[in-house]
Structure formats: C-alpha cells, structure tokens
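Methods — Computational structure assignment.
A single polypeptide chain was analysed. Its primary sequence is given first, followed by the predicted tertiary structure written as structure tokens.
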Amino acid sequence: MEPDARAAAARGTTRVLAIHPGALGDVLQAVPALRALAGAAAVTFAGQPRLGRLLVGLGAAAAAVDFDGLGLDGLFVDGGDDARAAAQLARFGRVVSWFGARHPPYPERLRALAPGAVLAAPVPPEADDAPVWEHLLRSVAAWGAPAPSRQPLTVPDAWRRRGRDLLAGLGADPAGRALLVHPGAGGRWKRWPPARFHTVLDAVGREVPEPIVVHEGPADAEAAGALLAALGRRAVRLAQPDLEDLAGVLASCAGYLGGDSGVSHVAAAVGVPAVIVYPPETAGRWAPWSPTARAVGAGATEADVTAALSAALRREA
C-alpha cells in the first residue's frame, strides 16, 4: 500500500497545496488524487474546514487550511490585491487548484504566484465521460505521482468507538448487523423515492437488522421522515451527526443503502459494503472510486437494488 499523507509529512517531502472548496461528495471524489500526491509529498487540503478535518482524520491529507483564508478572491480581477494569496501560496512547493480553472484571469494570476501550478475543473467537460475521481487523478499525472490505492480509507479507532456508542444509544446493536440508510440527496431530482427504499428493505427481509438506522442530514427531513414513517418500529433516526461520528457509525455497520449524495460517498470511502442508487444523469460521472461500493444506475428496479444489497450484506457476513 502506498504511504499515506501522514507518513509523507513525517519524511519532510515537498509540500503540496490542494485547493477544492466543493461540497462533501465532490471533495471525496478527489481522494485518489490526494493519495497519489501523498506518495511523494505532504498534502495540505484547502476547502471547507469540516471537510478538511475529515480528510486529515482519515489520512487523505496531512493538514488542512480554510479555503476562505487563502485570499484567492483577489486573483479573479486584473489588478486585484494578491498580497494575502502570495503569502499563503509561498508556503508550498506545488499547488493544484480544482477550482477556477475556467475563469480568467485566475489561472494566469495563480501561476504567476505559484509557477507550475496545476489547474483543473472539479468535474470533467461534458464530452469526457470519465468518472470525476478519474478526471481529478489525471489532472496530477504530469507530476509523476505514483498510482494510488483505491482501497477504503482507515477510520481512526476513536471515531469507531464513538460510532458504536451512537449506535448503541439508538438501540442498534453495534456488534450486530446494523444497516444505515440515507434516503436524502442534495437535489430532489436526485432522490430515489422513499417508497422504493421501503420496498427494497422489505424484500431483503431477514438479512436486514432491526432497527434499521435512517440517517437524516440538514436537508433530508422530508425524505427521512417518509421512510421512517413507512418502516415504523423497524427504524430509528440518526440526525445530523458530525462527519467524524458519521464515519465512525458507517465503519461499524454491516451495510449501507443510499442515493446520490455526499453521505453515500462517505460510506464508500470508509469501506462499508454500500449500494448507491444513481439517477441516469449522474450514474457514470459520480460513481464512487472505492471497490466496496456498488453503483446502481439508470433503469434499476427494486429487484436490482434488492439483489445488490443482499450481495453486499452477504460479503460482510
């Protein structure tokens, strides 16, 4: 297995700044690229602070900084103030920006401060049907980064303990076969209907533990509430845990079922056997990089998803 970000940092190798201010799922698609960089560099992630904490805790980055503190806004205007950005970027030997690549004068002004900087859009162009994670990995290929592992990230023991405690507090046996279901998604058009989740969970039958843990994020009250109502006493609600606690819960589960969401990418990243149901528009582009996650795309029936979930649970058994 390639050295992780903390091992590279300990060796004192070149410091790389990886800029990605995107949302949870978008950022987790960058893990293979971050791992490739970490094979020969100490990687600092610049993005949302809560995502930086997650990546550092999981070993995908050696350190994290707040994207808003970099002062990059001055690089989007000719003649804009770049003093703060210059001071921040000077701390790093290399810079990769998965942000601003298509918005001049940012690329030119960034390269003036960080010669040789790599810029790439956070997603591939429409004509490129590569998965997002593969597009981001290709963007750093010119630096000769070693091929990364696509095995799941390692969840710290402390997070796992907190996850088991949360499950126990909900009445779900953390030593048993807990199943976490996340029926929400960032956009209504990406959601698989709660009724279809319910059909799958009924069909899986004895392989599904009780209570089923239904995760509810900040924008998921409607979808989570509908599924909880349909499942009745068979389900309990896990409402808005911190990302570190969510990772610990997922690492303690026997299986995961969800739609196209950031939570599903967390499940894939930490290695719980996962089935993720994608709408036709996103199935190919946003499929996860982890081999422990099964992407079910366009045209999937409840029977298809049931079969995939049963297989996932059998792998864990």
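Note: The mean pLDDT is 92.
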